Amino acid sequence: MAGGWWAKAQAGGMLLALLGWVSSCVTTFVPLWKNLNLDLNELEVWNMGLWQVCITQEEGVVECQAHGSFLALPPELRISRLLMCVSNGLGLLGCLLAAMGLDSWRACEDKPGQKQRLLLAGGAVLGTAGITTLVPVSWVAYNTVLDFWDETVPDIVPRWEFGEATFLGWFAGAFLAAGGLLLACSARSTSTATPPAPACHQLPTTRGLGGGHHPPPKIADLVI
User: Fold this and answer.
1) Which parts of the chain span the membrane according to its record (predicted)?
2) In this structure, is residue 61 part of a structural domain?
């Protein structure tokens, strides 16, 4: 029963880690971190990402333009680019390390200690990837809230709001962290496995020279 539970925990952790890594990669490159609806022209919707700004018109035409200069970006977007790229690399590395440490992986079966270290390392790397995903997404969301409620800006000026990538990034960070935690906790299964019970050995019986059983001596035989 315990071995089946640990196997399910490893499978669940690996699934969460893969979902989190894919979601993190999508969050990095889609231009949906912020949305802007213009009151003067309701037929256009502006979307901003880490790499470009896109305008979606009512006819379904999408026009995108890359950010002009990296140094001209706000600090939260510059650092978010770096952190999201680091998160994608750490997520891939963590998935590879954790996959090699799974009980279902046939490699290193004769070295349970090494498989346990691989699972622990993979879980730690995935947890770090989750943090490096949550930090930039939360930072951009925090600045979006500050700009939205900025009283110094006239009410007639359009304001940026949360985009779909913001929520996807939060889910990605949570999946990476949860998957890494499950994989790290399931690493104990390789070290707490119950050792096999020793086989019972029957004491050899005393045999005579002819191969038969030698009966014990009687009291009458001992009397001279």
Assistant:
1) 12-33, 79-99, 119-142, 162-184
2) no
